[in-house]
Write a structure and sequence with these properties.
The protein is an alpha+beta fold. Among the domains are: 46-79 and 576-668, no CATH class; 303-331, no CATH class; 670-788, Immunoglobulin-like (Sandwich). The protein is built from 30 helices and 20 strands. The strands form seven sheets. It has a five-stranded antiparallel sheet, with no helix packed on it. It is globular.
């Protein structure tokens, strides 16, 4: 320890203390024992409960989840694995409670990046706070998008690892790259990680250009190979989830589809390989909405915000003869948000000071960083526009590998938030340098022109935009009907809304101009040396952080918290209906919650094996059943019967109490059928379900003819019964005098479910579009299904080996750093 310079640690300790204090202040209710009410976390808890109960009973997490959508792989919910790694996230965030830990972690990771760039400690603090408190982060935390939050937090640290490698700090860079690649990829939010890799590639290409110009080919080869090695260790540590997810994706809604309904409501066969374009482009970011990066209220805040009594639309309604109280009531039902997204929980605000400092950075910075950062911002913004830049994004959807697996292109805006924060701190650092060298005066005009040009563009937008919104037709139609089909009334209401929108945009424009004047005033006093560098940095840090926290508080505040007991009571307390159903000790039956959100809620899954559920990557065959059989009015009861839907949860519209209705036709875990109806292709298979008699017939695609005889001999004495049932192992007892065909009320998923008859491998087929069926020879037999995915075993071995490699890199790096410090002394 005598070789350690304790004085150098003090500034970093100050940084950590500042991050900790601000996160504690902002998330104060968490210190009082309160918890966030996050709808996505509520959904996840419901989905994972089945696995938790399995672990408590059998001592290990299952690979198959029986709690939602009649059964699906656990890969994207909760998957066990063998690794030697510790919980790095817990240690990096000091074990702080949620959500304090997320803000602190984001600050720490950006701080690591700033230090890799060689920035001043206090400038690094300012940039870290700017990144961590940009409004996208509190918005996703409030929603409960925790894996997304962690993936966002780790991005700057992984970027730091690459920069260390590219600047010849090889072992430290390899350590940071391997560690943070493991953490970035391991949190399992592929979409954020995918977007990050695009930006990392842009940065890498920038470095490659520099190396080629400098003819530094040896360094280029070493740096790129080590970057690949670090990334490979990260991917290897994630191999268990990566391999199983890659396989699983092919069978989900993100892997394409084989049927779809046309305009005349008939099915046709298709062969898509990813999400539909319309679905993939949902939540596209309006082109003009990029101004919310510095004007948070310009497009009306969130979809939950509504107009108040001071809105122009109230006056217009009063002019049209509507009583003022009624006019105010109507106005408060109209959303202030008028951007291009389907809905939004808040703007993507980076901080006006952050954006303006980034503009200063683009003027002052002469390194290659400004070019790859600018390119990254432009590309990310263009990708965020989705359907509003359809030519560009359709090309990416068709040609960029795996891009068609993702939806909600607005998510990529988090990358510009990161890039603007980086450019802001680079600009501030460069400002310190040119002042110290006496060169600041030569940059006065370029900075004024750049900031003035930006404000000029915003002013032109204010003057020439039409302030229309995609929701205007719906609003106009509603008020037209309200006024006995008076079209003029509907148009007048929309015109009043346009007036309000222009006012919102104008107010935020004035706000931005005010901040710009403040910044320029501070820069002038700095140029005249009336302000010391540290004073300027601290003032900007305080102003920008205070501004961000003020805006953040509109989207994550005390109202988002509740007492832990209240949280549990509201979401996970047994109702009388639940208790009634749970008296049934049959291990197999399923429950159908007849509610509007039946396929986007998982409270039912918390207590029961549910027909519905909550998950963004449902199996394709099950989604097809939802769209084509359950969406009918009434739904196809025969399909519900074959899924062993024994109980329905029905909410009384008057009392809001949930009642239980038992289904006497639920078919149980398995049964034998008399006939097989052979069909040609998925369209015919789905259409045949419309009139299926599942107790008598089984529908089988002709692709399985080699596995099942064409004719069956019905044995009236034959039987098949469920013997043992848990998530990963199902056993049945069968007896018949002649071969029979059995249908099992289990979702068909061929990549892992293996069948055995008397311990010997047997084949099974897809029946009734979504279930499993098997031809069983005569006699008495034990039949077993085991979930044994091959990629789970392979991925587990790779992850274990990769975790050992990461520890070796950590140990070797620490040893080399210790030797280096000793030599310096």
């Amino acid at each position: 320890m005598k070789y350690f310079n304790w004085k150098k640690i003090i500034p970093h300790a100050i940084a950590i203390a500042i991050f900790l204090v601000i996160s504690l202040i902002y998330c104060r209710p968490a210190l009082e024992g309160k918890v966030l009410s996050q709808h996505d976390i509520i959904g996840w808890k419901g989905a994972v409960q089945n696995s938790v109960e399995h672990q408590q009973k059998y001592g290990h997490y299952p690979l198959w989840n029986t709690g939602l959508f009649s059964g699906m792989p656990n890969y994207q919910i909760s998957i066990p694995g063998k690794s030697t790694l510790i919980d790095f996230t817990k240690y990096l965030s000091l074990g702080l409670p949620e959500p304090i830990n997320y803000f602190f972690l984001a600050c720490i990771c950006f701080y690591i990046l700033s230090q890799a760039l060689g920035l001043n400690v206090y400038i690094s603090i300012a940039g870290s706070l700017a990144f961590a408190y940009g409004t996208y982060i509190p918005n996703i935390i409030a929603a409960g998008h925790i894996t997304k939050m962690l993936a966002v937090a780790y991005m700057p640290a992984m970027l730091a690892g690459l920069i260390l490698l590219y600047t010849q700090r090889y072992w430290l860079g390899l350590l940071a790259t391997a560690l943070f690649a493991t953490l970035e990829i391991g949190v399992n939010h592929p979409q954020i990680t995918y977007y990050f890799f695009i930006v990392a590639l842009i940065m890498t290409l920038s470095y490659v250009v520099c190396w080629v110009r400098q003819r530094a080919f040896k360094h280029m080869l070493i740096a790129l190979l080590l970057a690949l090695l670090g990334g490979a260790i990260g991917v290897g540590n994630y191999a268990l989830t990566f391999l199983t997810t890659s396989e699983y994706t092919q069978y989900t809604i993100r892997g394409g589809k084989s049927i779809e309904r046309t305009g005349d409501n008939t099915l046709q066969k298709v062969n898509t390989k990813g999400l539909d374009k319309e679905y993939a482009f949902s939540w596209s970011y309006g082109k003009a909405e990029i101004v919310t990066s510095m004007m948070p209220n310009a497009f009306g805040k969130s979809s939950m915000e509504h107009f108040d009594e001071n809105a122009s639309v109230v006056n217009k309604l009063v002019e049209k003869g509507i009583p003022e109280n009624n006019a105010i009531q109507l106005a408060t039902s109209l959303p202030t948000y008028w951007g291009g997204q389907d809905s939004t929980s808040g703007p993507f605000y980076f901080g006006v000071i952050t954006v303006l400092l980034a503009v200063v950075g683009f003027v002052l910075t002469k390194s290659h960083h400004r070019w790859w950062i600018l390119a990254g911002i432009i590309i990310c913004w263009a990708m965020s526009w989705g359907r509003y830049s359809e030519g560009f994004n359709s090309f990416l959807l068709d040609h960029l590998p795996y891009y068609n697996k993702f939806r909600a292109p607005n998510m990529i805006i988090i990358l510009p938030q990161l890039l603007f924060s980086i450019m802001a701190v680079l600009g501030l650092q460069e400002l310190m340098r040119v002042q110290k060298n006496g060169q600041i005066k030569q940059y006065i005009k370029p900075v004024l022109y750049a900031i003035g040009g930006l404000l000029g563009i915003l002013t032109l937008m204010y003057v020439f935009m039409d302030y229309s919104s995609p929701i205007d037709k719906e609003i106009s139609s509603y008020f037209t009907k309200l006024a006995n089909n008076d079209n003029a009334f509907g148009r007048d209401v929309v015109n009043a809304l346009i007036t309000d929108r222009k006012k919102m945009f104008g107010n935020d424009l004035l706000r931005s101009i005010g901040f710009a004047i403040l910044l320029l005033g501070l820069l002038y006093t700095f140029m005249r040396q009336w302000l010391k560098p540290i004073a300027l940095i601290v003032i900007l840090l305080v102003i920008n952080t205070a501004d961000l926290l003020w805006v953040d508080s509109k989207y994550l505040n005390e109202e988002n918290y509740q007492e832990k007991e209240e949280y549990i009571s509201e979401n996970f307390t047994l109702t009388a209906a639940d208790e009634l159903i749970l008296k049934d000790k049959d291990p197999h039956y399923r429950v159908y919650n007849i509610s509007p959100d039946r396929f986007s809620e998982s409270r039912t899954s918390y207590f029961h094996r549910s027909i519905g559920g909550y998950h963004a990557a449902k199996l394709r065959v099950y989604q097809d059943i939802i769209e084509n059989q359950f969406s009918k009015n009434p739904p196809n009861t025969a399909v519900l019967d074959m899924l062993d839907t024994k109980y329905f949860l029905i909410s009384d519209p008057q009392t809001k109490q949930v009642q239980v209705q038992q289904n006497p036709n639920a078919m149980g875990a398995c049964w034998l059928v008399k006939n097989i109806i052979w069909v040609d292709g998925p369209v015919a298979e789905m259409n045949a379900l419309d009139s299926i008699q599942p107790r008598i017939n089984a529908i089988v695609d002709k692709q399985f003819t080699t596995q099942v005889p064409q004719q069956l001999t019905w044995d009236t004495t034959a039987f098949i019964t469920l013997k043992h049932y848990n998530n990963d192992t199902i056993q049945y007892t069968f007896n018949a005098n002649a071969p029979q065909f059995a249908v099992f009320s289990e979702v068909y998923y061929p990549k892992g479910w293996n069948a055995y008859i008397d311990g010997k491998p047997a084949s099974y087929v897809k029946v009734n579009y979504v279930l499993r069926g098997m031809y069983i020879p005569a006699g008495k037999h034990d039949i077993e299904f085991r979930f044994e995915p091959v990629f789970y075993k392979i991925g587990g071995r790779i992850s274990f080996i990769s975790s050992i490699l990461l520890w070796l890199v950590i140990v070797i790096t620490l040893m080399l750093e210790a030797i280096k410090r000793k030599r310096k002394v």
